[in-house]
Amino acid sequence: MALRINTNVAALNAHRQLLGTEQRLGQNMEKLSSGYRINKASDDAAGLSVANRLRTNIRSLTVASRNVTEAKAMVAIAEGAANQVEGILERMKELATQAASDNAAQDRDKIDSEFQSLRDEITRIVGDTEYQGTKLIDGTFGNALDADTSTADGVTGLDASGIRLGGVEAGIYTIGATAGGAITITGPADVGIEQTVNTTSDGAQSLSFDALGITLNLGEDFDYSEADLDGTAIVVTSGTGTYQVGSSNTAAEDEISVSLGNLQVSELGSGTGSMISDVSLATRADASEALSIVDDAIDAVGTVLGDIGAVVNRFDYTYSNLQITIENFSSSESVIRDVDMAAEMVSFTKNQILLQAGTAMLAQANMSSQGVLSLMG
Range of 124's domain? Predict the structure, then answer.
């Protein structure tokens, strides 16, 4: 038997095995304490990439599900207002029926007074129905700025990002400017509103044209020049409200567009051009004509309510599908990222025993070298 004391190969081997066991035991404890199989890229680089992508989609889809919930709440507001408008139109039909009979001749002025008051209430409801500042049923919902034709590129500090819209009818709005600093915006109905720019100010300015629903936010670098601003067009296009209901950028798959209609009195009526806004019950003939106009208005509101009902049902299915997708994606991520606690505990117990055994064998290896002392009796 060869006895060497400078190099204890058995002790070195036991120490190496002990270090490996200690490292594996540390990994076991890391996984058991975190609940994750993958705690760092070195654990499973490919798996971490896939799991992170799944987690990103889950978080995005969770926000999309909130978008759907909020969209349903917004549409519910529009539906409630449309129902009220429909109820008012029913009462207006009653009044028109009453006024169309000569036995009510002496009371037509009173009947007409209520009729006009109800029409004003429709106007108020339509104008007041909004969600977070966005009007819903006045025909402006979804209208957007056409940035390509609405930027004042020659004016520093004013571009499409500084043009804010709120309840703006579709059409072309023209900016007029004078050397004195006055800015006028004229809408499609030739209604103009004037605001004055502080041409000596270096700070940002905000010019509000509330009646038109337009605000110009002038940047700190705004360089006023009537030559640049005069004649600039702000183009507003009609459209629909769009909601992101997916985690990608494919419009057909990840977006839902909603139209809530236009319930203004100037848009409710017959196809021949007569609208609720033009109706009077002053005479029997007027009341008779009003009957068909109110009927057409009720049909128009019914169409809007039908569209709203359809989109609410679609949102319901969209929300259910999102919840299922989130659940399945979460399950897929769990398979990759989460640790099997039972299996990991088995490995942990094994490595604990190996650590104890390795420590004991290292002690034995160190003791074997002491046999050399017996030769030196």
Answer: 52-141+243-331
